[in-house]
Amino acid sequence: MYLIFSATLTYIASEVRQAAAYGVGVAAHHGGPQYAGFCAMALEPLFRCIARSDARDDEAVYATENACSAIAKIIHFNASNIPNIESVISSWLDTLPIIHDEEEGPHAYNILMDLVQRYLLIGV
């Protein structure tokens, strides 16, 4: 399954990338521990999806913002399975803002606020 999602997250058609990123986000949010490894492995292709030169073009921005949101959900729901979580969080912050996708944006920003509160409470 990972190979299919990895290929579709970097596919040329933005609609395919968007659907794949959305699927990874659903797996991160609702998949539970059995999907934690899959979600951790999906981080690299998600970041590649976001790093495309056309990532913020009108026809690709929803794929990009779904990928940003999927990373947020992986960070929030599967952090214990990511060995370099601080680095992932830092890289994820560089993918923001999410301004077009009104469905995924609130998820990502709620997770951002949770991270801010969590790190403020532990004094990092």
Structure description:
There is one protein chain. With 124 residues, the chain is an all-alpha fold. It is 69% helix and 0% strand. It has helices spanning 2-9, 14-30, 36-50, 61-78, 85-93, 104-121. Helix 2 packs antiparallel against helix 3 (36-50). The longest helix has 18 residues, at 61-78. It is globular, with a radius of gyration of 14 Å. The N and C termini lie far apart (36 Å). The mean pLDDT is 92.
Task: Sum up the structure in keywords.
124 residues; mainly alpha; 6 helices
In short:
The chain is mostly helical.
Helix percent band:
55-70%
Label the overall shape. Answer: globular
Termini separation comes to 36 Å
Could you state the order of secondary-structure elements as H and E?
Answer: HHHHHH
Number of beta strands: 0
In terms of per-residue confidence, which ranges show pLDDT below 50 for 5 or more consecutive residues?
Answer: none
How large is the radius of gyration? 14 Å
- The share of residues in extended strands comes to under 5%
Largest sheet: none
Mean pLDDT over the full residue set: 92
Number of helices: 6
